[in-house]
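Repro:
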Amino acid sequence: MKLAIDAMGGDHAPESVIRGCEIALETYEDLKVTLVGNEADIKKYIQPSDRVEILHTEVTIEGEDSPVKAVRRKKDSSMVLAIQQVKEGKADAAISAGNTGALMTAGLLVVGRIKGIERPALSPMLPTLGGEGFLLLDVGANMDSKASHLYQYAVMGDVYMKKVRKVVKPRIGLLNVGTEAGKGTELTKEVFELLENSSMEFVGNVEARDLLEGVADVVVCDGFSGNLVLKSIEGTALSLFSILKRELTSTFKNKLAAGILKPAFKQVKKQMDYSEYGGAGLFGLNAPIIKAHGSSNDRAFFNAIRQAKTMHDENVVATIRQELVKNENDTEQKKEL
């Protein structure tokens, strides 16, 4: 497999990006990478080889750039060129830790949507107390959604969890303000009916407070609600560890206790750490495009690579296409009956 990597995207690029690539190259013997970015900066951390190519460009898309304008005006940027590699068949997937909106725009304009998918979704794996994690679709790609969009998110999430996370029957939940069937907006009520009549393992409405308990394997929602959930979980985790650190270092007695409990706290932090779950997949595009976290360290970027590789190896995009055709045929048969 060959990956195109935006080496200049993210808070700690290019060093953390390249360190993550090095871990991946050591882990996967069949992996090759094309690092797109400033060649001089890249060569400070890695040299080209038969498994590493460098595609030079001095143009980057910044975090504050307008997504659409940046993609159209900076066609020779590291992000756009990485996705162009996929479009031209020179790479099987692309990864960037850069501007999220620009990556989604570039994915849509360059790679394009899967036929039958109305709106792609930005979909991260988030931690659960049991360690399995859950997939949340959508977390900001589309602020305004239709019922058909959320239904398609569920189909894509179902395929991903089966193929990549090896969950035999993924439990699909619909994010709502209550668990009762009649709760929510007109949108959620319509989505509830669609999912209830599908062949997927729909467990009904789920509340935000139960997500970390592992109430569902896939949770679907509109991008506005999903982004609020994502930021709330990230913010709560950061605040919690900040409070713990402050309290456990406040007195000599607490410091002694902290020393004893340090291994346990490390395990808790690892369990709740986003870096262990890879990046956010841009589901619904014609190839695996992964958005790594902007503050990714080398381990986080490696896990994003692992996610992209698994999506490619397990033919996730092709399977989504097949499922869409199957669902379309099932719908036509029901209409005839």
